[in-house]
Amino acid sequence: xxxxxxxxxxxxxxxxxxxxxxxxxxxxxxxxxxxxxxxxxxxxxxxxxxxxxxxxxxxxxxxxxxxxxxxxxxxxxxxxxxxxxxxxxxxxxxxxxxxxxxxxxxxxxxxxxxxxxxxxxxxxxxxxxxxxxxxxxxxxxxxxxxxxxxxxxxxxxxxxxxxxxxxxxxxxxxxxxxxxxxxxxxxxxxxxxxxxxxxxxxxxxxxxxxxxxxxxxxxxxxxxxxxxxxxxxxxxxxxxxxxxxxxxxxxxxxxxxxxxxxxxxxxxxxxxxxxxxxxxxxxxxxxxxxxxxx
Length: 294
Prior knowledge:
alpha/beta; globular; Purple Acid Phosphatase, chain A, domain 2; six-stranded mixed beta sheet
């Protein structure tokens, strides 16, 4: 049997609702000014075509790795929830937060309640990140790297408590023979992003993968397709980044796209084949633009 997992990220839904003056104190002010300058990069018509193309491929599950929002305004969260509903039933869609979803401390309460249906763990007792969802023999492990940061920073962090729970999830899923897909917003490997934008505890993440392994790690944040590897106990673990689902300008690697993974067991191993679908050239049609094997 083949399990088909779709991955998209960094929707950056706009336009931003008109903020109140008191909501633009601190980091939100610089973020809002930046959006006014760069907001046209993210095209909602393109995002709608990406989602329609993804749904037409009928994946078994969808992973959305963060940055639906822009500056974490309370008024942004209902739009984010409504958009996630267009992807499918929450049991078929998993979400992990990005730095723009957890933009400031006042965003965190909205973040927890708004996205709860898409971060529901299979075990009721496990309601904190990481959450684990088992679909067939696939263990989907969702991490939260989105944390509030100072102005002009976009870094992420897991923290010791989440890392400890993540270690347990990796070990138990491995012992049960499950294929482990780790979902995170920030590229989790060392030097996976430019200074001020990376995962601050990436070395801890790499150490856990080196000890317990994983079969696939997927992320967003950099707005481009990328493939890296982290050393694992049974060989290199692929770490794959996807482009923004709504970006229109820039190079081919940065334009709007999503990934489809076809996962199948081959004896004691897992075979993973990926397809990139998105915008190509001057065409507005969403087409297959590349394939890769992991």
